Amino acid sequence: MEFIKLVEIMEKLRSENGCPWDKVQTRHTLIPFIIEEAYEVIESLHNQDPEGIKEELGDLLFQIIFHAQIAKELGEFDIFDVIKTIGEKMIYRHPHVFAELKCDTPEQVLAQWNDRKMEEGKFTDSILNGIPVTLPALLKALKVQKRVSRVGFDWESSIDVLTKLQEEIGELKEAMISRNIHEIEGEIGDIMFTVVNISRHLKVNPEEALSQTTNRFSERFRYIEQKAKENGRDLKDMSLIEMDNLWEEAKISLKG
User: Fold this and answer.
1) What are the residues whose beta carbons fall under 8 Å from the beta carbon of 253, sequence distance 6 or more?
2) What DSSP string describes the chain?
3) CA distance between the termini of the chain
4) 158 near 198, Cβ under 8 Å?
5) From the CB of residue 245, how many other CB atoms can be counted at a distance below 10 Å?
6) What are phi and psi of 102, to 5 degrees?
7) Buried b / exposed e across 45-57, counting CB within 10 Å, b at 16+?
8) Which of 92, 106, 242, 251 has the fewest CB atoms within 10 Å distance of its CB?
9) What is the pLDDT along the chain (256 residues), one digit of tens a residue?
10) What distance lies between CA 9 and its chain's CA centroid?
11) What does the alpha-carbon distance between residue 142 and residue 139 come to, in Å, rounded to a whole number?
């Protein structure tokens, strides 16, 4: 079986006669790699590249096996315990599939999923339990907002949140006048948190929305760079008006 073979490869890499690099890795040193591999999976998914998706999923899987091997060496658990645990969890949290409970909509499924998590004691201290502090800020804000909305702590409509955004912008203007950097930072944070709230109400993923906008900006700016280069110009010597004209040209040219 290929999976068993991969586990054995990992064991060999970590063995006494294995790879010098793999042997000295720890849970801490591997953290950047598991994050990097996850993002590479996402990029391949965005590119709709089946071969890329296959390869990047393999790289991510290898990181999981790597961590499981370290745990095995510490006498904690192995990869098969990981598989067993997630299998049992999925069966328990899908009673509408593996038992008699009936759920007809995705919303009902999410409601019973959270009920099961409550039964497991996941939210004993707070409904915010389990949200990783290391999540990217936009995703963490979105997750916090989703959690508290389950108990009714939420705006009634997206228009209400939009009104709140206008209020927060006004407070930022006041902070800018005072030139208090801590107040300015706080108000900018409030604006961004409110924008995430608007996104959630409109069923838009703020991380995805910002990523797409940043990608569009990068593509258009590269267009400006290329046009400047073709004309033998240095961007530093161009006026903002000249660059803005190329920006508008890029918006039209890159639509096609």
Assistant:
1) 223
2) -HHHHHHHHHHHHHSTTS-HHHHT--HHHHHHHHHHHHHHHHHHHHTT-HHHHHHHHHHHHHHHHHHHHHHHHTTS--HHHHHHHHHHHHHHT-HHHHSS----SHHHHHHHHHHHHHHTTTTSS-TTTT--TTS-HHHHHHHHHHHHHTTT-S-S-HHHHHHHHHHHHHHHHHHHHHT-HHHHHHHHHHHHHHHHHHHHHTT--HHHHHHHHHHHHHHHHHHHHHHHHHTT--GGGS-HHHHHHHHHHHHHHTT-
3) 47
4) yes
5) 14
6) -110, 125
7) eeeeeeebbeebe
8) 106
9) 899 999 999 999 999 999 999 999 999 999 999 999 999 999 999 899 999 999 999 999 999 999 999 999 999 999 999 999 999 999 999 999 998 888 889 888 888 887 887 778 777 788 898 898 888 899 999 999 999 998 899 999 999 999 999 999 999 999 999 999 999 999 999 999 999 999 999 999 999 899 999 999 999 999 999 999 999 999 999 999 999 999 999 999 887 5
10) 30
11) 5
Q: Which two tokens stand for residue 240?
A: 């903002």
Which tokens sit at 191?
């604006």
Structure tokens at 13: 């890499």
Report which residue type is found at 226: Q
